[in-house]
Amino acid sequence: MSLSNPWFIAALIGVLGVFHLEFFATLLNLARLSRPVPPSLAEVFPEETREKLVDYIRDSKKVSFTREVTLLGILIVFWWSGGFGWLQTWAESQGKGPVITGVVVLAISMLAQTWISLPFDAWDTFGVESRHGFNKTTLGTFITDHFKGLALMALLGLPVAAALVWFFQTQTWAALYAWLFLAGFILLMTWLSPRVIMPVFLKFQPMEDGELKDAIFALAQKLDFPVAEVSVVDGSRRSTKANAFFAGFGKTRRIALYDTLLKSHTTEEIVAILAHEIGHNKCRHVPTMLILNLLEMALMLGLLGWALKSPGFFAAFGVSGTPVGMGLVLFGMIYKPLGVLTGLLGLAMSRKHEFEADAYARKAVGSHQPLTDGLKKLSRDHLAHPEPHPLTVWLHYSHPPLVERLAALQR
Ligand SMILES: [Zn+2]
Questions:
Q1: Which protein residues have a CB closer than 5 Å to ligand 1 (ion)?
Q2: GO MF annotations for this entry (predicted)?
């Protein structure tokens, strides 16, 4: 751990540089809250709503900032007091061989991060979200959600971790094999997630027959988009925030709508929102993003393979030798700045896709009005920042700010 080790410098930039960039972006974004609401949003955010919104955004930033500072503080103290070296020595002393040792180190670091974050999650849910009237989660649901999450992480994460450690421990072409393995895993998860994983947390029920269901099937038929089933999801059990999504592929495709969306939106608005989602499919946005993600993963695994062979990389964290599992834990810190860069690209692409899907929806329903109204409602109900700072948009926004979307829709 010395400044003459380039890996140490890279890790410092990764950890401290990205933290300060985020902090700076947040400050700029918060400063914009004191601006008057842009004229096109005046009816969405009347003075009274605006005050609520400023209050809500400041409150939730307080939680995320305290969380980040705490995680950073603990990481730096652990790192600079030789914690990683100590953890590795302890894990090896159990005498279980490199793969199990690696998985144990990965699992411990994941658990530590999750449990350090947990009080902040609770503060966010029961402090901030409750105070602003969003939260519907009970303490019981919160706790069972946490343990279900941990069980899933163990069930899916441990075998993947074991496979990755094994590849990099034993294979010359480890990065390539790991890439193929992870690509397969991602495809499997896309298929499994709505069928097996989401039902662990949410209840899916077939939508009752009626005007809305007829309108949805009519739209799907008009746009030549096969839909097998429309489900309603009990999002209201956790939050008042609304959502809609598609699950599955081709003829087995299901549409899932949050019950909260049904409560707050008209049939025309819901149909327009679904036309937007169908637009994503028709414009091939899903495979495009998947390919981008796979490319980024190739870059990441290539770099990882290189880092794992350099004793300097491990020395930067006070670890001796080249233990693979520990390397997977530490690599995240080195990769952070690059991750920000690839994130900028991916998010810019995603925002472009949103404009395309909006344009598709406008054409599909023959008017911009229902989507405009629907988007305004969603934005108001989520108390979204009316005019986020461009730096925050670049770093975090997968959707363009509402003002830009509305302007594009009316063009
Ligand atoms: Zn979209």
A1: 354, 357
A2: metal ion binding; metalloendopeptidase activity
Residue 404, annotated as binding a ligand: no
State mean pLDDT over 268-281.
93
Q: What is the 3-state secondary structure (H, E, C) of the chain?
A: CCCCCHHHHHHHHHHHHHHHHHHHHHHHHHHHHHCCCCHHHCCCCCHHHHHHHHHHHHHHHHHHHHHHHHHHHHHHHHHHCCHHHHHHHHHHHCCCCHHHHHHHHHHHHHHHHHHHHHHHHHHHHHHHHHHCCCECCCHHHHHHHHHHHHHHHHHHHHHHHHHHHHHHHHCCCHHHHHHHHHHHHHHHHHHHHHHHHHHHHCCEEECCCCHHHHHHHHHHHHCCCCCCEEEEECHHHCECCCCEEEECCHHHCEEEEEHHHHHHCCHHHHHHHHHHHHHHHHCCHHHHHHHHHHHHHHHHHHHHHHHHCCHHHHHCCCCCCCCHHHHHHHHHHHHHHHHHHHHHHHHHHHHHHHHHHHHHHHHHHCCCHHHHHHHHHHHHHCCCCCCCCHHHHHHHCCCCCHHHHHHHHHC
Q: What is the pLDDT of residues 218-273, one digit of tens each?
A: 999 999 998 888 999 988 888 877 777 776 666 677 888 889 899 889 999 999 99
The alpha carbon of 277 and the centre of ligand 1 are apart by a number of angstroms equal to 6
Is 280 a known ligand-binding residue? yes
Q: In this structure, which CATH number among 3.30.2010.10, 3.30.70.1400, 3.30.70.120, 3.40.50.300 belongs to the domain 204-281?
A: 3.30.2010.10
pTM: 0.87
Active site residue 356: no
- For this structure, is 277 an active site residue? yes
